[in-house]
Specification:
Belongs to the sodium:solute symporter (SSF) (TC 2.A.21) family. Interacts with PDZD11. The chain is an all-alpha fold. 72% of the residues lie in helices and 0% in strands. Helix 7 packs antiparallel against helix 15 and helix 10 packs across helix 22. Bound molecules: pantothenoic acid and sodium ion.
């Protein structure tokens, strides 16, 4: 990229950037020295289960909103129009379902890792398979997250790419290792604010420099960037209302329902109500985040309408262009380029730190603790810290892989979520909604799901024929042709792929849903072949009576026949007995006092049932 860009970064900018890193480190240090000083895994990994909903909700957004979204979404809008914005529709169910299905089940089981659920519901083997799959997902995803801002900063300031990758990884590893989950959540809060501020600054300056809101609107309208609702049912069409609004729900479920990084935040909430509330609060903020990055793409289009700078840049990478646009807008305004770089790094750091901490948690809770039950608390905490640090180093290696991929970063991230997150969602759904599913079915389902996911995912790399044709980059070109011709052009479907090729061109927005259903289907088939689970063998509290709720119009005895309904409410008192029932406890010591209050407990029970909590929990 143009080396003259380097002059855009002044002393003020370096100071702002340095303040971000220093503030993050300071928060880490604060939580290393205050409270319980991170001497227990309960504090280091679970924030003492004492968090309020506001920090938790901001932290929930931060987990999967990285520099990838900040750079990738404007690039997507610039090239293909605003269709992607319809993913916002999926946030409704994509957050309501986690709040009312996944949170109640997981919170009441008082697990510390989401994968502990899999053992309670199925077996140790399923838990380990789930954990390993999650580790793969996060390690690959982290690579993209670390690489993206470093690549951007390199483009803008000429900073050494790998030096930046190393610095990000190290700073993040340090504060995550020192301050535990409390530091991770509070740095997320601070970093989310910086992220919004940076995007807002670019948009405001950009709109002003392009000639005001109406001028921006006129250009994007004439440039045909405002997309209508595309109701094309073709599943190979990359972005339509169906792929984004419906396929997106499954993507959201895999991220906000069962991903350890998020589950850990729900579990760190002081009460279940706070956890549900924080999930609700994600909705407006996530819509804001989406709106800001989409608008940024529109302003960028208005700016370059008529002159595509990709020739000047010597690269057709939209990701690089977004950075070029930002620096072009912000030049001559000392401090703002620094704020934007801080915004990118905030987004990245908040994601990477969540990943480190959640990876350390699952490795500790799922892979180490069950096999070394006698390990002392101080040794376990030390080991958790060492784990957080080693994942930091591993992610540097993964950054290098991303560097070699060369796809648009947004697509890479969404594909990873779908290919690896989708099967995990399927595994949890199989357990929660289908009482008949057994452990063999779960393992077979997950294995098949992952195999099919990678088959399609890798196949798609060699079949780049999905509807990803960019719109013309230039709005004058459109003005000169008649609308009729243009409409005809955009409706042309490339010769439809057939057979296996058609299978490979499945839109990546369907990956989560498709892979989730594969796991459920294969899981059920194998379960029925090998002998379905009996009601009395299922651990109470691990089933969400979905079928019972869906079939609420049927008479009671028919429902009983169809599905062994263990309503969530009635499981409450039995789950309180779990430490006694299951020899393996939740690894953090069972603490009755921070469970549900008696009053809350009663509200979940059917009328006329009085919970005998005291009596049953005498362990
Ligand atoms: C995960 C979603 C879809 C949630 O809106 C969005 O934040 C996104 O597109 N993220 C891309 C991945 C990333 O930013 O790292
Ligand atoms: Na983030």
């Amino acid at each position: 990229m143009d080396p003259s860009n380097q002059k855009h970064f002044t002393v003020v900018d370096y100071v702002i950037f340095a303040v971000l890193l220093a503030a993050s480190m300071a928060i880490g240090l604060y939580y290393a020295l205050s409270g319980g000083r991170q001497r227990t895994t309960q504090e280091f990994l679970m924030a003492d289960r004492s968090m309020h909903c506001l920090p938790v909700s901001l932290s929930l957004i931060a987990s999967f909103q990285s520099a990838v979204a900040i750079i990738g979404v404007p690039g997507e809008i610039y090239t293909h129009g605003t269709q992607y914005w319809f993913i916002g529709c999926s946030y409704i169910l994509g957050l309501l379902i986690p709040a009312h299905v996944f949170i109640p089940v997981l919170y009441r089981l008082r697990v510390s890792s989401a994968y502990q659920y899999l053992e309670l519901r199925f077996s140790k083997a399923v838990r380990i398979c789930g954990t390993l799959t999650f580790i793969c997902q996060m390690v690959i995803y982290m690579g993209v997250c670390v690489y993206t801002p470093a690549f951007a900063l390199n483009a803008v300031t000429g900073f050494e790419l790998w030096g930046t990758v190393l610095a990000t990884g190290l700073v993040c590893t340090l504060y995550t290792t020192m301050g535990g989950l409390k530091a991770v959540i509070w740095t997320d809060v601070f970093q989310t604010v910086v992220m919004f501020a940076g995007q807002l600054a670019v948009i405001m300056v950009g709109v002003q420099r392009t000639g005001g809101v109406s001028e921006v609107w006129r250009k994007v309208w004439e440039g045909n960037r405002i997309s209508g609702l595309d109701l094309n049912p073709d599943p190979t069409e990359r972005h339509t209302f169906w792929t984004l609004g419906v396929g997106g729900i499954f993507l959201m479920l895999s991220l906000y329902g069962v991903n350890q990084a998020q589950v850990q935040r729900y579990l760190s909430s002081r009460t279940e109500k706070e956890a549900v509330r924080s999930c609700y609060m994600v909705f407006p903020s996530l819509q804001l985040a989406l709106a800001l990055s989409c608008v940024m793409g529109l302003v960028m289009f208005a700016r370059y309408c008529g002159e595509d700078p990709s020739d000047k840049l010597g690269t057709s990478s939209r990701d690089a262009m977004v950075i070029y646009f930002v620096m072009d807008m912000l030049q001559g305004l000392p401090g703002l380029p620094g704020l934007f770089v801080a915004c990118l790094f905030s987004a990245a750091l908040s994601t990477i730190s969540s990943a480190f901490n959640s990876l350390a948690t699952v490795t500790m809770e799922d892979l180490i603790k069950p096999y070394f039950p006698a390990m002392s608390e101080s040794r376990a905490t030390l080991l958790s810290k060492a784990l957080a640090a080693s994942y930091g180093l591993l992610c540097l290696a993964m950054a290098y892989l991303t560097h070699l991929m060369g796809d648009s970063v947004l697509q890479v991230a969404l594909k990873i979520f779908g290919m690896v997150g989708g099967p995990i969602l399927g595994l949890f759904s199989l357990g929660m909604f289908f009482p008949w599913a057994n452990s063999t079915g779960a393992v077979a389902g997950l294995g098949t799901g992952l195999a099919v996911a990678f088959w399609v995912g890798i196949g798609s790399i060699f079949t780049r024929s999905s509807g990803a044709r960019p719109l013309p980059p230039d709005c004058t070109a459109i003005l000169n042709t008649t609308t009729a011709i243009h409409t005809a052009l955009s409706n042309v479907t490339l010769s439809r792929p057939t057979g296996l090729k058609r299978f490979y061109s499945l839109s990546y927005m369907w990956y989560s849903a498709f892979n989730c259903f594969t796991v459920i289907l294969i899981g059920l088939i194998i379960s029925f072949l090998t002998g379905p689970m009996k009601e009395e063998d299922v651990t109470p509290g691990t089933i969400y009576p979905l079928l019972g709720k869906l079939l609420c119009f049927l008479p009671e005895h028919l429902k009983k026949k169809l599905c062994c309904v263990t309503p969530l409410g009635q499981t409450l008192s039995s789950h309180q007995m779990q430490p006694a029932q299951h020899k393996e406890n939740n690894g953090l010591g069972f603490q009755q006092e921070d469970g549900l209050s008696q009053e809350e407990a009663e509200s979940f029970l059917p009328d006329g049932h009085t919970p005998s909590v005291e009596h049953e929990t005498t362990v």
